[in-house]
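hey so i finally got around to running both of the ones u sent me last week. sorry it took forever, my laptop kept dying halfway thru and i had to restart like 3 times lol. anyway pasting them below in the order u listed, first the sequence line then the structure token line for each. didnt double check formatting much so if smth looks off just lmk and ill redo it

first one:
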Amino acid sequence: MYSKEFTYESIANVSGLSIATISRVFNKSPLVREETRRKVIKAMAEIGMNPSDYDLQPLPADNLILFNVPTLKNPFYSPIISASIAAARRHGYTVVVNEFDIDKTGIEAFLRILKKTRAAGVIIVNSVDTKFLEAISSSIPAVICCDDETPSSIPFVTIDNRRAAEEAVRYLLSLGRKRIGFVNGPETFKYARSRAEGYQEALRKAGIPTDRNLVTSVGADMDFDTAKAACMHMLTLPDRPDAFFCISDVLAAAAIKAAFAYDLRVPEDVAVIGFDDILVSKMMNPTITTVRQPTLQIGTLAAEMLVKIIEGDESSQHSVCLDTELVIRESTRIV
């Protein structure tokens, strides 16, 4: 009886294929090309295994891609999902959106969902522990979208969150703002931790210590009321913020409403920067200065990358980091 870890690694060394691909062959995935399956069988024979002892015949599958999000309340995901649906459709795949928290109590249930739906692949937006990501990848082709779990072997599509945040805070500093409140998302997500690092780095370079009284976090759904209450609390401090950097345009809108609640002017008294460049940033009065993410590119690339992996193109298993743009609007621009 061979140990699973030893067998997979041995086959990988002989065949030149990835362990994830070999795992999919043993899991009877229909997504592996027959040529690849033959390479695995040949390598098994070369290391002394008897391929006939194993049932490696593929199971039938549907051309279904699961797009898994931690919450459907965050409007940032909408254009990414739409772009992924359009890109997948061009290749004959159907995208189904699923809201599921992939944590240690939910990973087995999520794996069962993948098996029952016979999904061809999965796009993951959640923050997921590396060992759980590897379990998913061993079961099905996967791509991480919007976040970047660098210890994982799963490719991702993301932005340089740290650099984008640092640039936004530097801009506020260039306007003469010294007390910059920071409204972050849940630090279980890598993007939130990276943006916090960018915020802190910009302050450090300016010789301004981080004041924990000016830092708050909200959940993954970017709840408006929670953010507004947190910003209103900061604005009651004896040395109140003269600016807010928020990691979502929804949170930036909450910061503006908090300022208005105390008859403060935006941007004269309080400047505000958001993140994402979703529709609300253009609808607010004042319009919101924001870090524009290339959401259509993110969604399209995630789907295109996943389809290539599904269809056996291992050369596509590389990660992509896209550029952002700071869009200056009325919430920081004094006319």
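and the second one:
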Amino acid sequence: MRKKKKALKAAFPHTIPVLLGYLFIGIAFGILLRDKGLGAGWAALMSTLIYAGSMQFVALNFFAGGWSLASIALMTLMVNLRHMFYGLSMLDAFKSMGRKKPYMVFSLTDETFSLLCSAQPPEGVDKDSFLFCMALLDHVYWIAGSVLGSLIGSLIPFDSTGIDFAMTALFVVIFVEQWKAMRNHLPALAGVGAALLCLGLFGPDRFILPTLVLIAGLLALFRKSMAQEADAS
């Protein structure tokens, strides 16, 4: 128990940016879900079992009807396909986590993946427990924000137009934090360049999958040079 508390205490400061982002984004989701006629119970259930911020925002459109199960499945696959890349890149990090491993794979949101890749436990803190606590804290933040947003939406009705921009704002904050933390900016530049190129070629509705494939190819191509630079630093 002492080891878990120590890991939780060490993990919490690293999750503060996600805490602030997830609370506000979760509130936005809860408000929009309330606009669809679904209350706090549904917000908690979706955020606990689905736990995919962008997909949950997309799922709000499903409640309007007119979507077949095949269309919903395909849309979900396209939106969340990037998580496959996250999971593959974390296989070594999770291999010693035992029963926690399925949850760690499930909890790989964009922001949690970013934290797990960059944060290092302090001396004397178990690494597996440290990573698990960061993932769990992020999940709790998202659930709490969603439920809070649903409750706020039921008490204070207002125009929710544009509130889903909170997700974009969090992505920008995470990107800036990673840029400042990492000395090698090649992965970030590859991501931005690939996204802009694919956005121009395929349009805003179809650029995500080719962007991911292009980024994976670029990182694989320059993997050795990036590893040598990291060893040199």
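quick thing i noticed on the 2nd:
The first helix runs from residue 2 to 35.
anyway thats it, ttyl
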